[in-house]
Write a structure and sequence with these properties.
Elements lengths: L2 H12 L6 H28 L17 H8 L4 H15 L10 E2 L4 E2 L18 H9 L3 H8 L7 H4 L4 E2 L13 E2 L2 H9 L13 E3 L13 H23 L10 E6 L6 H12 L2 E5 L1 H4 L4 H17 L2 E5 L3 H4 L8 H19 L3 E6 L7 H4 L4 E4 L5 H12 L11 H7 L4 H17 L7 H14 L5
Helix pairs in contact: 2-4, 4-5, 5-6, 12-14, 16-17, 16-18, 18-19
The structure holds adenosine-5'-triphosphate and magnesium ion (MG).
């Protein structure tokens, strides 16, 4: 079985792919009912000033439900389950939390100990970390401190991006932050379906796919060998790190730098590697990353890294030049921010237990300290004449009709274009031919395209 199919099977099982929606919601129904009872008990005890005896969690009945699987996989205890279902409540049964709107009559204001925040459109009570601490711990300081540990980065809530405690203003207690569950996690728990996250300022990465296949990739043998090495690492990583015990010395994951001129297939190769290995490839948009809101950027990128670490993704930083160029000595405030950002990124790249690929046009911009952190530097050179011929043939496919005057061998021999340039010429030639009422591409169409492409690249034939 291929790695890809094996992963898909495991993925379907993990997601409880075969279970009906009812299976998932029935489980959540019982869990929400439990939260309702626990809230009643907690509030009663709070106002009576008595110790609370919270009801035990329901026995999970649907082994195939996404919720039951999550609880089992992450080994969540009763208190963690309570916090999880509390965070889910506004999405699934918002009225359940209305009891927390009760006012402190003595003071004529909200109860500090219930936490909570108000949304823009949502009419219900939105929980904060404080609400979680209240429900889970009440006035027990020891239990309250234990609640805090659920929001540490090493806790599965964070690493699985399941429950987040959002940031608060400077100097405010962190439990004041909103308790949230990202939309894709809500959907997964409620339906068993794992949606691919959408690109947004909150999640500055995009799924990268291609309709080409590995056979279409034209690279020299040295490049191909490096790429095989990456594939082999993914296939054998567990064996090497665990089976052979090399995990003590070797870091998990694999970091590579793709370098070479524009249009030589770096982005394409990242997409193809994902396709071959059955991994989703997420491309990080660096234009969104370089922002003056440094804290925001780190948080948002941090999310991409967190998710990548636990969801079998291949992370691809395209056009990495901007960020991974030489770290400057100058100390304008912008540079300092940039350096801080780079240091943060380098650390995250180094710590990521998956495959990370960075692509750049300029290898010389990458400093040594940076290069040392890579397991491989893969060169994508300009193609030679023979490779260019394969590129022309590949780009034209077998359906396109060519005029009798077209000599692809000559074209490949004489015109130094990379794959990206070839694609552009073919597009231009196809438009020109059809626009001229012809069903076949003539040599002149191709030559006009070549001239245009050369001009675009600031070159002459
Ligand atoms: N080596 C190649 N083999 C096959 N097709 C290629 C190759 N290089 C480029 N192409 C074609 O050109 C298109 C553009 O290439 P791609 O975007 O991967 O280049 P790149 O190296 O990432 O360029 P840039 O540095 O500008 O980002 C590809 O989608 C593919 O159709
Ligand atoms: Mg590219």
């Amino acid at each position: 079985m291929t790695v890809r199919r094996e992963r898909e099977r495991a993925g379907a099982a993990r997601q409880g792919g075969s279970a009906s929606t009812r299976t998932h919601t029935a489980e959540l129904d019982r869990e929400l009912a439990w939260l309702t009872r626990a809230l009643e008990v907690r509030l009663h005890a709070h106002f009576a000033d008595e110790p609370a005896e919270l009801p035990p969690p329901p026995i999970l009945q649907e082994a195939g439900s996404a919720y039951a699987r999550t609880v089992a996989d992450l080994r969540l205890d009763a208190t963690e389950r309570l916090v999880l279902v509390l965070a889910l409540a506004p999405h699934l049964r918002p009225e359940l939390l209305d009891v927390l709107f009760v006012q402190n009559k003595g003071l004529g204001r909200d109860f500090s100990e219930f936490g909570g925040w108000r949304g823009g459109n949502h009419k219900g009570f939105l929980p904060t970390g404080e609400t979680a601490a209240f429900v889970a711990a009440g006035g027990d300081l020891d239990a309250r401190v234990a609640t805090l540990s659920m929001f540490r980065p090493e806790h599965p809530f964070a690493s699985e991006d399941l429950v987040r405690l959002e940031a608060v203003g400077a100097y405010e207690p962190e439990l004041g932050g909103a308790l949230t569950v990202p939309a894709d996690s809500v959907e997964r728990l409620a339906t068993g379906l794992r949606r691919k996250p959408n690109f947004s300022p909150d999640f500055p990465a995009k799924l990268l796919t291609t309709r080409l296949s590995w056979r279409d990739l034209v690279v020299p043998p040295e490049t191909a060998a490096e790429l095989e090495h990456i594939k082999a690492w993914v296939r054998h990583e567990r064996r090497i790190l665990d089976g052979w015990g090399l995990g003590r010395a070797l870091k998990p994951g694999y970091r590579c730098l793709f370098y070479g001129p524009p249009g030589t297939g770096k982005t394409l190769t990242a997409a193809l590697l994902g396709q071959e290995l059955g991994l989703d490839v997420y491309r990080v948009d660096l234009s969104l990353i370089v922002s003056k809101y440094i804290g925001e950027t780190e948080k948002n990128l941090g999310r991409v890294f967190d998710r990548a670490a636990h969801r079998d993704w291949l992370l691809f930083f395209d056009e990495a030049d901007a960020l991974f160029g030489k770290r400057t000595q100058t100390q304008s405030s912008n540079d300092r921010f940039a350096n801080q950002e780079i240091a943060y990124l380098l650390q995250r790249v180094e710590d990521l237990p998956g495959v990370v690929i960075l692509a750049t046009n300029l290898k010389s911009n990458i400093d040594d300290a940076f290069a040392r952190r890579f397991q491989s530097l893969v060169h994508f050179p300009m193609p030679d004449a023979e490779q260019r011929l394969s590129l022309w043939r590949g780009a034209l496919g077998d359906k396109v009709r060519l005029g009798g005057d077209v000599r692809l061998e000559e074209l490949a021999e004489q015109v130094e274009l990379a794959g990206g340039g070839v694609i552009n010429v073919v597009r231009h030639a196809a438009i020109a031919a059809l626009n001229d009422g012809r069903e076949l591409i003539a040599a002149t169409d191709l030559m006009a395209g070549v001239a245009k492409e050369m001009r675009k690249q600031g070159r002459t034939l």
